[in-house]
Design a protein that fits this description.
The protein is of the alpha/beta class and 280 residues long. It is built from 10 helices and 9 strands.
Length: 280
């Protein structure tokens, strides 16, 4: 069951925050939902918006400025948390890029993480919960994300093409198995380098597929992003898409960094992209 924590009138709709007991995580989890006015009388298309390192279920909802366009389009927005909370895992609060706020959207297999750090399965669980208890159209659900969340969105979409009809990303970690953030997280959560890493690496996954999203994938990347040279590697995903005959729009923006000012600049384009795909 969903426990309503708070709600706020917003652009004719409502921004809500919920808590629920997660089977996948084994702990209570929180998430946000923006319900446009259209959701009061019909099921509407829905978009998962995955946040990045250090963020929580409120970050995207309060910083991206997405509700105005979502209200105009009649698009539900779902903002999950980025990791379990209160898991009592030793060391989970020691680093900003591992543990709390840094679940990396994987199902951990290694101790001490594996009992609760199962964010991949959690997102699939949350998708079903949203369909069952909120007015989301089950055949019109997309996914997008920023940074670590961009990694999560690409991986979730590529591995679940029957569940997510559209996918986009903002400055995603495109090849986590080859960057310091990913290497640190994957080593802790998944163990030594193995095929398990490739299962959560968007560039590696794309290399095994053929045209998984014929309608295209949209990615935006700021060229003044300090993480671009060493952590993000959009060119690897771009090359994998070319080899897979996957249509990709990768837009590179001069002067923009990794933060939410950049996200707010391009977010309307992403919502319109998803809306067009979800209603087609």
């Amino acid at each position: 069951m969903l426990e309503l924590i708070s709600e706020h009138a917003c652009f004719g709709g409502v921004q809500r925050y919920y808590r629920h007991q997660s089977t996948a995580i084994g702990l209570p989890m929180r998430f946000g939902v923006f319900l446009p006015a259209q959701a009061s009388s019909a099921k509407v298309p829905a978009l998962f918006c995955l946040a990045g390192l250090t963020c929580n279920e409120e970050t995207f909802a309060t910083k991206a400025g997405a509700q105005r366009q979502a209200a105009a389009l009649g698009l539900m927005l779902i903002t999950p948390d980025t990791s379990p909370r209160d898991a009592a895992v030793p060391g989970e609060a020691d680093s900003w890029d591992l543990g709390i706020g840094a679940g990396f959207y994987v199902d951990a297999t290694e101790a001490p993480w594996h009992p609760h750090y199962r964010m991949y399965s959690y997102l699939l669980e949350l998708r079903e919960l949203i369909i069952a208890q909120l007015p989301a159209a089950d055949d019109r659900i997309g996914i997008m994300g920023h940074s670590m969340g961009g990694h999560g969105a690409l991986v979730l979409a590529l591995r679940n093409q029957d569940r997510f009809k559209s996918v986009s990303a903002l400055a995603p970690i495109s090849a986590p198995g080859r960057c310091p953030w990913g290497e640190k997280a994957f080593s802790a959560y998944l163990g030594p380098v193995s095929a398990a890493w490739d299962a959560y690496d968007a560039s590696a996954l794309m290399s095994t597929l053929h045209r998984p999203f014929p309608g295209g994938i949209l990615i935006d990347q700021g060229l003044s992003d300090k993480f671009l040279p060493d952590q993000l590697f959009p060119e690897m995903f771009e090359a994998a898409c070319a080899a897979a005959d996957q249509p990709l729009t990768l837009r590179r923006h001069t002067g923009y960094d990794h933060g939410y000012y950049f996200i707010a600049t391009v977010i309307d384009d992403h919502l319109k992209f998803h809306h067009a795909a979800l209603i087609s």
